[in-house]
Specification:
Blueprint lengths: L3 E2 L2 H23 L4 E7 L3 H17 L2 E7 L5 H12 L6 E4 L9 H7 L11 H8 L8 H12 L8 E5 L6 H10 L3 E5 L6 H7 L2 E4 L17 E4 L21 E2 L6 H21 L1
Parallel strand pairs: 1-9, 2-3, 2-4, 5-6, 5-7, 7-8, 8-9
Helix pairs in contact: 1-9, 3-4, 6-7, 6-9
Length: 280
């Protein structure tokens, strides 16, 4: 039997339809729309593509999208000043600071300046701490999208050996916490982990988010494993060598069309949730 393709694009479209119905109902009742502010700094082409995709989705589902494009030479203090302004703007329900920012900017300081109640991308230390403790919070969008995808396809992680390859604060670490909260046994690895092939060979679920094209070789993968490729590299190449993966894995995410659409879907779902909470 060939592997199940975990179609994130298809699921994201279904979730979009549900959000659109909610936003329309709220607009009729309240006369207002949810507002998402996106801050992008510099000229990173991948970031600009992602932001444009998000804008298009906002238009489809009835969310106001406010874009703040800042120059490469923008300082940390200037970003903090803008975030403070957005925190205090009642028309803004969610704030997204597009990653990565230029190296001279203190990204963590900027992330942590976002009001926790508007942290719809789940990037603040407070949101991560709440997630790790099993408390209510907005979650990092990509890991949340992955968990929704696993749930939709009835892939139970409880008791399974899960390997997360990547340790970023907005993907690898929260991904590990979410899997742990669902009773998976979690190992975190990264690009400098020794004998990583042996860890992959043991894993029932592999989440690759290391940012290196085809880093995970298909010969490392355990037969019947679930493969989540959260990497996105130039030329639509993920972090896993997916050629022939359908004959090895029991389920896998394609690149593109797997994890990516679910990230935007999760971000906008949480924006609408913030809007509803704040307008009640």
């Amino acid at each position: 039997m060939e592997a199940i393709v975990l179609n994130g694009k298809e699921l994201a479209e279904k979730i979009e339809q549900e959000i659109r119905e909610i936003t329309l109902k709220m607009y009729v009742e309240k006369g207002k729309k949810a507002g998402l502010a996106t801050i992008i700094i510099g000229d990173d082409s991948a970031s600009k593509t992602y932001v444009r995709m998000k804008e298009i989705t906002c238009e489809r589902i009835g969310v106001n999208c406010l874009l703040f494009e800042l120059k490469q030479e923008t300082t940390t203090e200037q970003v903090l000043k803008l975030i403070d302004k957005l925190n205090n703007d009642d028309n803004i329900d969610g704030i997204l600071l597009q990653h990565p920012v230029p190296k001279h900017i203190d990204e963590r300081k900027c992330f942590n300046a976002i009001d926790k109640n508007k942290d719809v991308d789940g990037v603040t230390s407070a949101s991560f701490g709440a997630l790790a403790m099993g408390e209510e919070s907005y979650a990092s969008a990509t890991p949340l999208g992955i968990m929704k995808l696993l749930e939709h396809y009835h892939i139970d992680v409880e008791g399974k050996e899960a390997l997360v390859i990547g340790r970023s604060a907005i993907l690898g670490k929260p991904m590990a916490m979410m899997l742990l909260n669902k009773n998976a046994t979690v190992t975190i690895a990264h690009s400098k982990t020794q004998n990583i092939d042996k860890l992959v060979k043991k894993a029932d679920i592999v989440v690759a988010c290391v940012g290196k094209p085809k880093f995970v070789k298909k010969e490392w993968i355990k037969e019947g494993a679930v493969i989540i490729d959260a990497g996105y590299n130039p030329n639509n190449i993920g972090d896993v060598d997916l050629e022939g993966i359908e004959k090895i894995a029991s389920a896998y995410t394609p690149v593109p069309g797997g994890v990516g659409p679910m990230t935007i879907s999760s971000l906008l779902t949480q924006t609408v949730q913030s809007f509803i909470k704040r307008k009640q």
